[in-house]
Every structure is written in structure tokens, then in C-alpha cells.
Amino acid sequence: MTIKQVLVLGAAMIGSLVTGSAAAQEPGPFVQVAEIEIDPAQLASYRAAVQEQIEAAIRLEPGVRVLYAVAHQDNPARVTVFEIYRDTEAYRAHLHTEQFKKYKATTDKMVTSLKLVRTDPMVLGTKP
User: For residue 48, what is the enclosing H or E element?
Assistant: First the structure.
């Protein structure tokens, strides 16, 4: 699957997750942004590890709706991961999967900073 196909699929999933004011109600989707700083010398290795983890999570975890990892153009070692899970339980289950544990162990020395930002979706739009 190409990156473009993944982005289109993810956008379609976002649209099906959130409609109207239901976004702010519990239970609902668990949406989080991870702000990550990577050791620049290990960026290629990090990219491979995050790609493996995201592909496995999308394929194996029914509660994972969207996982996007993007590098900032002005600083490729600064990575933002946009995450949407079916609900809080799906997020918690994700943290206990083998693929996530492998990702954490593999990237432990690559990540120099990690900030998790829980968000409440206001408006998420998609285009077919």
C-alpha cells in the first residue's frame, strides 16, 4: 500500500469516526498526538522501526483507526505521530501488544524527547 493510499484510507476512517458534537462525548475515539525528538544520527533506524510498528498495528489491532508519523520539514529529527483509537480501551490494549513493546525497546535509545498530548477532536474532515 502506498503512502497516498494509507493517507486516503486514514482520512476516510477519521470521517467515519467523528460526526457532529459526538466527538466530545465519552465513550468515543481516543485521539492523541505524540511529539517526538529523535537522535539525528539514528533517524533512518527510527523511520524503519516506526514504519514496522504502524503497519503491524493497523493490520493486527481492530481498535487502531489511524496512525500517521510525519517528520517536520525544517527538522526531520522532529516527528509528530497522530493517533486515533476506537476508544480508551483500544489505546490501552495497543500499549500491551508485542509490536508496540518491540517498537519501544528498539527505539528507546533513539528517542531523546517524547511528549504525549491528549486531544479532543473538534472537526475532522475527509475528502473521498
Answer: helix 43-60
